[in-house]
Amino acid sequence: MEHIVNTDLGSYLRQMRERVRPEQMGLQTRGSRRVPGLRREEVAALAGVSQTYYTRLEQSQTAHASPQVLLSIARALDLSPDEQDYLLKIGTPIQNPQQSAPRGDQLSPYTSMLVGSLGNVAAAVLNYRCDILAWNSLYRKLFASHLDFDVPENAEQRPNLIKMNFLDESIRSLYADWTAESESNVTYLRFISGSHRHDPQLAELIGELTIQSEEFAELWCRQRVANCIEGTKLFVHPVVGELELMYQSADLQDGNILKFYHAEPDSPHEAALQLLTVDLDSVHLHR
Asked: Which of 228, 215, 239, 72 is closest to 142 using CA atoms?
């Protein structure tokens, strides 16, 4: 019988253990420590499992654990809700690996009409890999005016937002805080990889970014996990200048994600965003 290993689980547990300070968990320390963070025996004691069993998990000698054990370890490692969710995904067996593979990136007619109707916000439909399946005119002008409007319709040329953020200088320069944006991209990609461990396209995307971007490779190795649902981002746009925009993500019935950006009503940022809806080239021609 083939021995199954789970290096994702082992390496993740090790990374999380090394980041936790003993005093965080109410443990007293004496003298210097040879390794950062908690010791294995301390995690095992806090989680209520044997040191031998925990060591086997961390050394990838045991592929999976029960949800109850994983939840105990998550508490011992002081994991966030997103990190706990990720641990459960990579630490339990997948019942049907084929269910993790996408069946196709298809938009429903309702989704297409919705995106087209959102003229006052920058909106796009992404799959979980952040491939852009559709966008409205304002989203394209905000992020990638150098690309044709219909490029998301071509599966071979379809842009990927995370790939563009790391590899397209004209797009990564939009972010006032590129460090925060890059970390957010990678922690999200790590988060969703837990649910799609058998998706070859996702693996290809991660591999390509790891090879082409040293920044991505360094961040990926940290194994930080966080979902990306809502927040605020500051842009420095080459046409309209500074833009502080709120963003939100919503799951759609067709399995994709609606991502949209909007500004605070009646603010200078809203005025700047709406300026992007104007065809500036046409304005200049008619002067």
From this structure: 239
Q: What is the pLDDT of residue 254?
A: 78
Give the C-alpha distances (Å, rounded to integers) separating 116 from 1, 52, 125, 135, 165: 54, 57, 11, 8, 24
Give the three-state DSSP class for 21: coil
Q: Are 129 and 207 in contact (CB under 8 A)?
A: no
Those residues whose C-beta lies under 8 Å from the C-beta of residue 198, and which sit 6 or more positions away, are 94, 97, 98, 100, 101
Predicted confidence (pLDDT) at residue 118 exceeds the cutoff of 80: no
Inform me whether the pLDDT recorded for 224 exceeds 50: yes
Rounded CA separation 154/255 (Å): 19
Backbone angles phi, psi at 158, to 5 degrees: -55, 125
Q: How far apart are CA 196 and CA 165, in angstroms?
A: 22
pLDDT tens for 160-204 read 999 999 999 999 999 999 999 999 999 999 999 988 888 899 999
Structure-token match 């009503």, residue found = 265
Over 60: is that where the pLDDT of 3 sits? Answer: no
Alpha carbon distance 109, 254 (integer Å) = 10
The rounded Cα 133 to chain-centroid distance in angstroms is 17
Distance CA 206, CA 285 (A): 44
DSSP 239: T
> What are 205's two structure tokens?
């995307």
pLDDT at 133 over 90: yes
